[in-house]
Each structure stands twice: as C-alpha cells, then as structure tokens.
C-alpha cells in the first residue's frame, strides 16, 4: 500500500526532541527517508534508534545549526547520500526567557536570532538549488503564535518568529512558480522540554503571557503537531503555499 511520503527525503532539524522527534517518526512511518539533525548527540541517537526499530531509513547528524559549515555539511551530505532533498523542516529553536526589551542582552538576542531565524535562512538558501534542480520541494518552518502576536514570548523570540513567518511568505512568493512550497506552523504551547529558555525567566514576561494562557485550555502533545506538519509536507496540501497554519487549540481566538 502506498504511503503519503514514499520515496521522499526529509531533513528535520531539532529532531532529537519534542516536535521534531515526533515529526521524524511520523514522516518515517509514512515512508520518508529521514535526516535527523540535532546539536545533542544522545538525542540524535534516540530518534535514529526509534526509527530503525521500526525499519525506517534514517541518517543521524550531530550538528550545530548556528554554524554555517555544519549547515553546508548537512545539505552536501544529504544530497551525496540520498541523491536529493524533497522536504526541509526548519524546526530547531530555543525560547528566550520571556525577556522584555530592557532585559534582552545583545548576546541573548544574537543567540535566539541565530538559531530561530538565521539557521532557516542559511539552510533553505543552501537546499533550494538542489530542490529546484530536482523539480521542486517543500519547506516547512516551525513558527509560533509569538510570530503573530506581541505578548506570547519575550522580545527576541517574538521577533525571530515574526521574521520566520515573513521569510516563509517571501520564499513562497518568489519560488512557488519553481515548484517550491513554503509554509509555516504557528504553534501555541506544546508539551516539550523547551521550557522558558532560561532558569531565571522574566517575571514581567510571564505575567503578560499568562494574561491569555488560560484560554489555550491545554498544551498540545508533540505528536498532535506532527500531524499538522505531515499535512503541510505531503501532497494533501498541494494547493497550500505561503500559509501560516495556526495550531493552538484556539488560544489566539481569544
Ligand atoms: N514547545 C512549544 O511550546 C513551542 C511553541 C511554539 C513553537 N515551538 C517551536 O517548535 C520548535 C521545536 O521546539 P520543541 O518545543 O520541540 O523544543 P525541544 O527543545 O523539545 O526541541 C528542540 C530541539 O532543537 C535542538 N536544537 C537547539 N539548538 C540547536 C542548534 N543550534 N542546532 C541543532 N539543534 C538544536 C535541541 O537540542 C532540541 O533537541 C522550535 O522552533 C520552537 O520555537 C515550540
């Protein structure tokens, strides 16, 4: 029986934990070959083992997505080993401690931007020529409702995810005619180990976020988000390009 992602090669960054891990497992179950990327070696090993245990085809890479040479290696090795890249999920990300403008130090700003925004830019820039050469491809960016609203995270995270959503729409507009679809998920709270991004989160930031938090009802489980992702990377969403799919249990309707 054919599966949704048969013969597809999918790179997933931050696939050693949480949402990326569940995406990797689900996409593999749907027939894709997975390139699992994470900066923490044990996490890569855990996801790779889980996929192998179900007889999936998988390749693990321990890389730091803030390093340009690591990103180059990711794209070059993926093409060398699997011949093509069909799906790129820019998913690795970190939180920002809910820091306000006054509390956000420059190093912290750079760190959050480098992982949440610059890495998707560089990875997509390097993968795109291979996708176009192959007749097309699908890019999925893990954004957040903090990329649509002002009070759901600190400054750096909010700006990085607004940027990622702009990036998504721009790539969709410029490359849609060349067979590239680029979409984003704007997620509410998801039950992962991402936490607040700091052992000393901003009390001001948390208070502002908590003003609306009750209306979310409950956080998502990562496997629920993986199903949104599967829709966006499969032919089930063939007419969806440049979209931001809000997946937040209605948190932002209030
Ligand atoms: N959990 C939530 O509530 C939530 C909400 C909205 C959006 N998101 C987004 O979802 C994405 C995944 O987050 P998650 O909740 O699954 O968190 P997570 O911490 O469980 O997983 C993120 C993974 O990314 C990896 N990573 C971090 N920096 C990296 C780097 N420089 N290079 C390579 N890998 C790196 C981590 O090691 C980790 O395994 C992030 O982009 C996050 O912003 C999460």
H-E order: EHEHEHEHEHEHHE
| CATH topology label | Rossmann fold
- State the share of residues found in helices, binned by percent: 40-55%
Present as ligands are: nicotinamide-adenine-dinucleotide
State the distance separating the first and last CA atoms: 43 Å
Strand count, sense and barrel status of the largest sheet are:
7 strands, parallel
Number of strands: 7
Biggest sheet strand order reads 3-2-1-4-5-6-7
Q: Over all CA atoms, what is the radius of gyration?
A: 17 Å
What proportion strand? 15-25%
Within CATH, the superfamily carries the name NAD(P)-binding Rossmann-like Domain
Shape from CA axes?
A: globular
Overall structural class, as computed from helix and strand content, comes to: alpha/beta
Q: What is the top-level CATH class? A: Alpha Beta
**Count of DSSP-assigned helices:** 7
- Which second-level CATH architecture applies? 3-Layer(aba) Sandwich
Tally the structural domains.
1
What does this structure look like?
The chain is globular, with a radius of gyration of 17 Å. The protein has a single domain (9-253), classed as Rossmann fold (3-Layer(aba) Sandwich), CATH 3.40.50. It has a seven-stranded parallel beta sheet with strand order 3-2-1-4-5-6-7, with helices on both faces. The protein is 44% helix and 16% strand. With 254 residues, it is α/β, with parallel strands linked by helices. It has helices at residues 18-29, 41-53, 68-82, 106-133, 155-175, 203-213, 222-233, and strands at 9-13, 33-38, 58-62, 87-90, 137-144, 180-187, 244-247. The chain contains seven helices and seven strands; from the N terminus they run E-H-E-H-E-H-E-H-E-H-E-H-H-E. The chain binds nicotinamide-adenine-dinucleotide (NAD). The site of nicotinamide-adenine-dinucleotide has 27 residues, from helix 1 and strand 5.
């Amino acid at each position: 029986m054919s599966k949704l992602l048969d013969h597809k090669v999918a790179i997933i960054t931050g696939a050693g934990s949480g949402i990326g891990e569940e995406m990797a497992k689900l996409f593999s179950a749907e027939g894709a070959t997975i390139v699992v990327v994470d900066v923490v070696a044990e996490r890569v090993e855990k996801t790779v083992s889980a996929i192998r245990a179900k007889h999936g085809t998988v390749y693990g890479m321990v890389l730091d997505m803030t390093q340009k040479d690591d990103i180059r290696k990711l794209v070059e090795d993926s093409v060398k080993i699997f011949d093509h890249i069909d799906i790129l999920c820019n998913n690795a990300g970190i939180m920002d401690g809910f820091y306000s403008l006054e509390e956000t130090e420059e190093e912290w700003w750079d760190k959050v931007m480098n992982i949440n925004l610059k890495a998707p830019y560089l990875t997509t820039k390097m993968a795109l020529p291979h996708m176009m050469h192959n007749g097309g491809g699908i890019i999925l960016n893990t954004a957040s409702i903090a990329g649509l609203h002002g009070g759901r995270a600190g400054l750096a995270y909010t700006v990085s995810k607004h940027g990622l959503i702009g990036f998504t729409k721009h790539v969709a507009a410029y490359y849609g005619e060349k067979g590239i679809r680029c979409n984003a998920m704007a997620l509410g709270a998801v039950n992962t180990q991402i936490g607040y991004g700091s052992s000393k989160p901003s009390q001001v930031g948390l208070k502002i976020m908590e003003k609306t938090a009750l209306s979310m009802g409950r956080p998502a489980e990562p496997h629920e988000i993986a199903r949104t992702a599967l829709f966006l990377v499969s032919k089930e969403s063939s007419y969806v390009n440049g979209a931001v799919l809000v997946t937040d249990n209605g948190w932002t309707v209030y």
